[in-house]
């Protein structure tokens, strides 16, 4: 274990922002974490996964900690399902690939989501009709204060749309060291999402395999989302908002192309990308920042942008959406 001082984080965040941390350290065990916490006990702490869901608006005046242990272990198995423990440093998409190769069902629609397994429960990541909570069994970790260990089972995680106890009450207080998933050995594939259905029709696949679904999702994401190695971005910047049914019906009369998906008895979820596009932001560029030309949910660093510039762009978009639709967009990313 080595503690770096004045550490440049440009390669540790997918926006590619040129910011630094007062201290930076990777750990792979409780002993290393105990040692680190003792040395930086007076510093602010930021727990960092893959850096794909974070916007730095300034240098971080504290210690950034990254847990990097990898590995996948089978804890239990029967004819119907398998229980896997995955260490937090494992890349999420590598884990999805592993499960598809093993014919374990439940996370294939979340292929190519960036980041680490340890960060996945924080955001309750999801895509194309699947969410992490659907296969989540437990998360193991360590409290930074007191350094006691705890296992959080699903019922105690307060999972919601892109939200969890780890994102709010335990933010930067609890380090997830491994996540346990229960995956099925046979299952009906979720192919009802529009773009997946279209790809299956064009491929004339009536009985797609797990690998087929993964390949389709990878293809869709690669076509729709910019590669952060070319243009810095964090994928979807905003959550899809939930609005009251009455509000949706009123908007739908004015904008018949607006689509809505029932979220609860009285609320409708609508696509944030559509709202942003209707306000004229899709493909718009201002200096070093802009909105991606193919996906209005994605804000892009086209060069040497600062986090403050990206945040200013986001605020302008939110202001226009509220003026036009009386809907308050909420950021999906963690803003530092």
Report what the structure shows:
This protein is α+β, with helices and mostly antiparallel strands. It folds into three domains: 4-67, 2-Layer Sandwich (Uridine Diphospho-n-acetylenolpyruvylglucosamine Reductase, domain 2); 72-184, 2-Layer Sandwich (Uridine Diphospho-n-acetylenolpyruvylglucosamine Reductase, domain 3), CATH 3.30.465.10; 242-335, Alpha-Beta Complex (Uridine Diphospho-n-acetylenolpyruvylglucosamine Reductase, domain 1), CATH 3.90.78. The chain has helices at residues 30-39, 92-102, 120-123, 194-203, 210-224, 245-254, 272-278, 307-325, and strands at residues 4-8, 20-27, 44-47, 54-55, 60-67, 72-77, 81-87, 126-127, 130-131, 136-143, 149-153, 174-184, 242-244, 261-262, 267-269, 285-286, 289-291, 299-301, 334-335. A five-stranded antiparallel β-sheet has the order 6-7-12-10-11, with no helix packed on it. Helix 4 packs across helix 5 (210-224). The chain is globular, with a radius of gyration of 21 Å.
Q: Count all strands and give the number.
A: 19
Spatial strand sequence of the major β-sheet: 6-7-12-10-11
Estimated radius of gyration = 21 Å
Number of helices: 8
Q: Quote the distance from N terminus to C terminus.
A: 25 Å
Helix and strand pattern? EEHEEEEEHHEEEEEHHEHEEHEEEHE
Biggest sheet descriptor: 5 strands, antiparallel
Tell me the β content: 25-35%
Mean pLDDT: 94
Q: Identify low-pLDDT runs.
A: none
The figure for the number of domains is: 3
Q: Give the class-level CATH name of the largest domain.
A: Alpha Beta
Task: Determine the structural class based on helices, strands and strand pairing.
Answer: alpha+beta
Q: Judging from the principal axes of the Cα atoms, what is the shape? A: globular
* CATH fold topology of the largest domain: Uridine Diphospho-n-acetylenolpyruvylglucosamine Reductase, domain 3
CATH architecture of the largest domain: 2-Layer Sandwich
- State the helical fraction: 25-40%
């Amino acid at each position: 274990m080595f503690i770096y001082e004045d550490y440049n984080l440009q390669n540790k965040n997918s926006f590619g922002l040129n910011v630094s941390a007062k201290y930076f350290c990777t750990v792979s065990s409780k002993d290393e974490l105990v040692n680190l916490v003792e040395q930086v006990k007076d510093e602010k702490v930021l727990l960092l996964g893959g850096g794909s869901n974070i916007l730095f608006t300034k240098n971080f005046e504290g210690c950034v900690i990254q847990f990097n242990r990898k590995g996948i272990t089978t804890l239990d198995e029967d004819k119907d399902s398998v229980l896997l423990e995955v260490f937090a440093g494992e890349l999420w998409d590598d884990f999805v690939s592993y499960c598809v190769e093993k014919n374990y069902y439940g996370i294939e629609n979340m292929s190519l989501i960036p980041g680490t397994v340890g960060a996945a429960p924080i955001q309750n990541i999801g895509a194309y009709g699947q969410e992490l909570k659907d296969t989540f069994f437990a998360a193991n970790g360590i409290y930074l204060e007191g350094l006691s260990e705890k296992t959080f089972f699903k019922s105690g995680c307060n999972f919601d749309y892109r939200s969890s106890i780890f994102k709010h009450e335990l933010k930067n207080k609890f380090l997830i060291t491994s996540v346990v998933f229960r995956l099925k050995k046979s299952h009906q594939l979720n192919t009802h999402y529009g773009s997946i259905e279209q790809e299956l029709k064009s491929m004339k696949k009536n009985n797609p395999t797990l690998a087929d679904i993964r390949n389709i999702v990878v293809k869709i994401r690669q076509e729709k989302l910019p590669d952060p190695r070319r243009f810095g971005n964090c994928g979807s910047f905003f959550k899809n908002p939930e609005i009251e049914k009455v509000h949706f019906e009123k908007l739908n009369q004015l904008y018949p192309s607006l689509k809505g998906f029932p979220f609860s008895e009285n609320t409708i979820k609508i696509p944030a990308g559509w709202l942003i596009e209707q306000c004229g932001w899709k493909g718009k560029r201002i200096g070093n920042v802009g909105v991606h030309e193919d996906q209005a949910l994605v804000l892009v660093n086209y060069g040497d942008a600062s986090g403050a510039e990206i945040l200013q762009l986001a605020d302008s978009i939110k202001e226009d959406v509220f003026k036009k639709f009386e809907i308050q967009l909420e950021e999906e990313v963690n803003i530092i």
